[in-house]
Predict the structure.
Amino acid sequence: MSLPSLSHTFHRYKTLRSHRISALPIVILMPHSACNCRCVMCDIWKDNKNLHQLTEDDVAGLLGSLMQLETRLVVMSGGEALLNPNFFRLCEILNKVGIKVSLLTTGLTIKHHAEQLIKHVRDIIVSLDGDEQLHDAIRNIPECFQQLKDGVQQLHKMAPNYPVTGRTVIHRLNFWNWPGIIHEAKTMGLKQISFLPADVSSHAFNRQMAWEEPRRDEILLSKNELPELQKIIDQLLKEHREDFESGFIAESPEKIQHIYNYYAAYYGLNPFPFKKCNAPWVSAVVEADGNVRPCFFHDTMGNIRQKPFSAIINSDEAIRWRKQLNMSTNDTCVKCVCSLNLSPITRL
């Protein structure tokens, strides 16, 4: 894959210096607000009755801004993006102007949509929470694991080199099954597996308020469980050295250790891990109701049904917010579980 053009690179440098976005390489769209799983670590499904979804007009209306901002990749997230009946039409609209599409999915319906996915979606990231029994329990859907596995195998049957990777949220209910998750990812035929801790502090994922006890403690490891978590991490670093070296495990050993540090920080045993992140300068999120956020975890800045996308992210308020954002002191950023850091020359 070639490096970004000189013009695109210049505009990305300009964005980081001026806080006015001249190039926005990644945009995350949420085509559908509902989800087909009932995960214990997420509240999205609890609002399934209040359905919102992006329309063809919404996405077509974004094109002017996306082309102006030289957007290269749209990540379809959710909710479950494939629940939108016009999902592939949305992909067609984006593909037609050269914007690639990546999909984050529960995986329950990818077998049914395999042919269309291969045609319109560049790559897929599926959620994997444990071995079969644990995955089904965490997702609260019978045979959820088997449907995911069947879907991945169907994709590879039709297109052996089609990239499907996995993502796992490590938390109190599955940390002990970590080696099993890696085993299942390989058996399933995933190209790569990535790990991150559970968000237990923000308003993201349809939480009307940040979790408090006892809800938080269902997912947050207890202080007494931390030594066992560290023992498992030590085991992973020793027994899966080749998986780190090959990139099958996406994170570095240092970032895997950060998962322990994240949970330990809730008990004052160490600071929250430092995350180098420039997500609000290189990406933005458009939710199913049209609301725009600088990332999953910060407040909305406007709505594409009321104002053009480019005008929202470059409003005086948005520019001022980026200028004033100090990620080392902002509570949301300090406790964030993920990060996106793209240099101006990073390839997507």
About this structure: The CA atoms of residues 35 and 79 lie 5 Å apart. The chain has a mean pLDDT of 92.
